[in-house]
Amino acid sequence: MTVPMTLADTLTNEEKLADLDLDTLKQLVGLVEHDAATDPFPVNGWDAAVWAVGNATQTSHFFQSAFGMELVAYSGPETGNRDHVAFVLRSGGVRFVVKGGVNSSSPIARHHARHGDGIIDIALEVPDVDKCIEHARAQGATVLEEPHDISDEHGTVRIGAIAAYGETRHTLVDRSRYDGPYLPGYVARTSGFRKRDGAPKRVFQALDHIVGNVELGNMDEWVAFYNRVMGFTNMAEFIGDDIATDYSALMSKVVASGNHRVKFPLNEPAVGKRKSQIDEFLEFYEGPGAQHLALATNDILQCVDVLSAEGVEFLNTPDSYYEDPELRARIGEVRVPIEELQKRGILVDRDEDGYLLQIFTKPVGDRPTVFFEFIERHGSLGFGKGNFKALFEAIEREQERRGNF
Ligand SMILES: [Fe+2]
């Protein structure tokens, strides 16, 4: 298969270092052709998901021990950072930066006090920071950081930042002139943590999508924001008000960068008989924020087995889901026996392009807010629309247990 230049050129350095080639990435996250030359806000891909947490030291350990990620860089008082500690973790093309304030006046500590553990920055790698910031400004975005260079002995990074929903931001990073471990101010760091014998090198390879929850009535405004400010397009699976169980409901629409490298589903609560899961998020996160991160894996069975053995908890899927003849007929043949999926509670959905396997963790912090999805795509570019009802019923069972339903 020949690799089209427009896509090949967008592989980030991190992805190349992680031995990700374009065909693999295409399969993992579902890419489409796109002409970057006409894009008002060209995006290469994800740069990092940056977290503010209550204890970065321990969260860093969790992502290593439970998620199989690798510690690669660090910033903190020892490197001259008097505000917070930050640990940079990698798995394939995925980069998490986990930050914790070292005193109460740190902006990280203040973010955490209000929102709990969560995503403060969905950073994107772009080829031209100035062009993006100028376009964003002209389209009415709030510029939080003007484009500027930061340098160290590894080179120069150009960055700028714009505001997104709630207190979330998008830092835009051009690291084409930089070969350090993360950003100036960070030093390379490894960890004494050793994986268990026989553990795979990594259990997920790429970031597929990050979902944002916004208040009732604001979803279309944020869809329009990403259309206008970042030139993102509405994806085919542009789902309206059809996501409801008997009790609670939400609305969701998906915007994506030109080649679908970066995908942002946006949810808002809808009125139902009981409290929407989005309302629960907004209440406990104390405002809009990133709800879940979907990590793409080429072996979801292994991924779930490894994470479960480390104590990561997933939402349960009832046996009735797998025994439903309608579902069996709809999904047809998938690469593994349904019984293997059932054992692990993995969901499956099929559309005209192919199918996907997916599973969701329970919230990973103390508040019922941020959680993860693991997704194995086989041609499908969707988000598991056919599973929403089963998934939401599982979430509602958890909400009920927390007394928030
Ligand atoms: Fe998702």
UniProtKB/TrEMBL annotation:
GO terms for molecular function: dioxygenase activity. The keyword Repeat applies. The keyword Iron applies. SUPFAM superfamilies: Glyoxalase/Bleomycin resistance protein/Dihydroxybiphenyl dioxygenase (SSF54593). Gene3D superfamilies: 2,3-Dihydroxybiphenyl 1,2-Dioxygenase, domain 1. CDD domains: HPPD_C_like (cd07250), HPPD_N_like (cd08342). It holds the Pfam family Glyoxalase. Keywords: Dioxygenase, Iron, Metal-binding, Oxidoreductase, Repeat. InterPro entries: 4OHPhenylPyrv_dOase, 4OHPhenylPyrv_dOase_C, 4OHPhenylPyrv_dOase_N, Glyas_Bleomycin-R_OHBP_Dase, Glyas_Fos-R_dOase_dom, VOC_core. Its cofactor is Fe cation. It comes from the Bacteria. Residues 45-175, 206-362 form the VOC domain. Belongs to the 4HPPD family. PANTHER family: 4-HYDROXYPHENYLPYRUVATE DIOXYGENASE (PTHR11959:SF1). This is 4-hydroxyphenylpyruvate dioxygenase. It comes from Nocardioides panacihumi. The gene is hppD.
